[in-house]
Every structure is written in C-alpha cells, then in structure tokens.
Amino acid sequence: MAHRGRARQDIATAPGVDRRTVTRWLNTYCANGLSGLRPKKSKGKSGHIPAALADEVKTWVLTGPAEQGLDRANWTHAELADHLLKTKGVRTSRSAVQRFCSKIDIRLYRPTYHHERGDPVQQAKARPEIAELGNLYSSNWSVSVPSARR
C-alpha cells in the first residue's frame, strides 16, 4: 500500500494499528526486508537453575527422594523446586524446574502398579481358610427386607 502511494494513516486503519506502528514496520522493511518483519522470540529472563547443578539433579531423580531424606516415593517438579531452595538456596518455580529437566533429558515418572501372580501352593493352602471366613461372616449377617406398604 505504501508503495502505491497510500498515506500511512490510511494503511494503519486496515489492521487497526497506530500510524507510528506502520512507520516502524516500513522502516524495518526498508532496512531488513521481509525477514525483519517476522516475530522474534523474546529473550526473557535466563533460567534460575545453574547448569552446573544438572548432574546433581539427575542423581537426585535417579536415586529418589528417600535418598535425600524425604518421605516421598517419587519426585514432582514442585518438590524438586522446593528441594533446590532448601539445599542449594536456588529459588525457582515448578515450571522452571520442568523446563530445566526437559533440557537435560530428565523425565519424572509416575509410579505404576501391577499385581504379581501369587504362589500357587500358598493360594491352595489359603482357599479353605478364606472359604471358612466367608461362611463365618455370612452366617453372622442377616439381611432384612422391609415389606412394602400398602
């Protein structure tokens, strides 16, 4: 539009931006071409967790929280963040720990449970006892059904 001679104010009304924004876009285009107009990722604040702690955090995850004196079976990102604060003085968030773990190829796991097959000999010995307990409990329980009212 600018190349065809349209005023910057007229160009700005189509996308709903300020005239100064159009001026900034045109100046960037003249200086850098189309690549200058592509959005760039914000640099943002660098991570709070020093890269030097990567090996130690990996060790924590592999050995589990019990080795660190905690009463948990598995780590969560929030618990790792809390442990970093208490042991290393590194104040960080759960999401920062998640990104840090992802960057150093650590994936926290959830516990999975499975039932092992029992010993057939012990199961055979337990069957009569279980049957006896079942009979004992069923004879002590009586179920009364209320009669329907007319």
Break the fold down into its secondary structure elements and pairings.
Elements: H1 8-13, H2 19-32, H3 54-63, H4 77-88, H5 94-103, H6 120-140
Helix pairs in contact: 4-5
Describe the structure.
- Among the domains are: 2-37; 51-104, no CATH class.
- The chain is elongated and about 95 Å long.
- It has six helices and no strands.
- The protein has helices spanning 8-13, 19-32, 54-63, 77-88, 94-103, 120-140.
What's the gist of this structure?
With 150 residues, the protein is mostly helical.
Note the main attributes of this structure.
6 helices, 150 residues, mainly alpha, Winged helix-turn helix domain-containing protein, Homeodomain-like_sf
- In DSSP terms (H or I, runs of 4 or more residues), the helix count works out at 6
Q: Which whole number gives the mean pLDDT?
A: 84
Structural class: mainly alpha
Low-confidence segments: none
Number of distinct beta strands: 0
Biggest sheet overview = none
